[in-house]
Every structure is written in structure tokens, then in C-alpha cells.
Specification:
single chain; mainly alpha; two-stranded antiparallel ribbon; 5 helices; 4 strands
Length: 151
């Protein structure tokens, strides 16, 4: 099932889905295995979507990095916490501002996410109502309101 969601929302929802396995110690082994399968399937799809977002983030970093007069990105050498030499892109003040703006826009832009819906009602009933509502339509099924005619 495809849904529209922002990368920021996807990160938040993914954390909630992943937390379902860790917080539900009282589920039977059979229910846990079904839920585990669903969480693993969702996480696989979520990771694929996040990889695409990460590619866009790297493009934004490259597009806004400082360049020398030949158009080569300026890299700064530094030592990480283990003492190993690393390199990172340098940014001008304007480039940093644009980087932050572009990053914010990306995180608020909807992406198409191919999700996995877990619909085992007996297991869903064991979860906190807040979690179920937060994940409705993303991991749990969307509930269709029944309309009745009033004469």
C-alpha cells in the first residue's frame, strides 16, 4: 500500500513501529512472531525509503558546499573521536544557510512510501491507544467510518 508521508514523519513512525516488539513482553510467542514479521517487513520498506532520502540529503550537501575557483569542493581534514583522520565538506555562511533551508524543505516534502499494514486485530487491541492512533494508516489499517443515513 502506498501512502504520502514526510521523511520526518517516517522517522517518527518507524521508531514507534520498532518499539512495538520491545514493549509488548506479554504477547504470546505466536502473536509476537507475526508482529515481528510485520515489523521487519515495515522496517525493510522504511529503510529503502530512508535510503532515497539520504541520497537527496547528500545531493543537498554537495550542491551547497564551498568550492575553489576550479569548482572543486573544499574539504576540511579533522580527527574523529578515535583519532582517525576524516574529511568533511566546508560551507560558506550563505551555503550553510541554504543547506539548512534545503534540508528543512526536504524533511517537510511528502514522499511516496510503500508501506506494510499489520492487521491482526487481536494483537492490535493489546497496544496503547496512542500508539495505534499514531500509526493508523501507516502500520495499522485505516478505519473507515461507517456512514448511516438519517431520515
Amino acid at each position: 500500500m502506498e501512502i504520502k508521508i514526510t521523511p520526518k514523519q517516517l522517522q517518527e513512525k518507524s521508531a514507534l513501529v520498532y518499539g512495538l516488539i520491545k514493549t509488548e513482553d506479554d504477547l504470546s510467542a505466536a502473536k509476537t512472531s507475526k508482529l515481528q514479521y510485520a515489523v521487519q517487513k515495515f522496517n525493510k520498506l522504511s529503510n529503502a525509503a530512508q535510503a532515497k532520502v539520504n541520497e537527496k540529503i547528500e545531493d543537498i550537501r554537495i550542491d551547497n558546499a564551498a568550492e575553489d575557483d576550479k569548482g572543486i569542493i573544499i574539504m576540511k581534514e579533522y580527527k574523529d573521536s578515535r583519532g582517525e583522520t576524516q574529511f568533511k565538506k566546508e560551507y560558506t555562511k550563505e551555503g550553510e544557510k541554504k543547506l539548512n533551508s534545503d534540508f528543512k524543505n526536504l524533511m517537510e516534502t511528502e514522499i511516496t512510501f510503500d508501506t506494510y499494514i499489520f492487521s491482526n486485530e487481536s494483537v492490535i487491541a493489546t497496544f496503547d491507544e496512542f500508539v495505534v492512533e499514531e500509526l493508523r494508516g501507516v502500520f495499522f489499517p485505516e478505519i473507515k467510518a461507517e456512514l448511516s443515513k438519517v431520515d
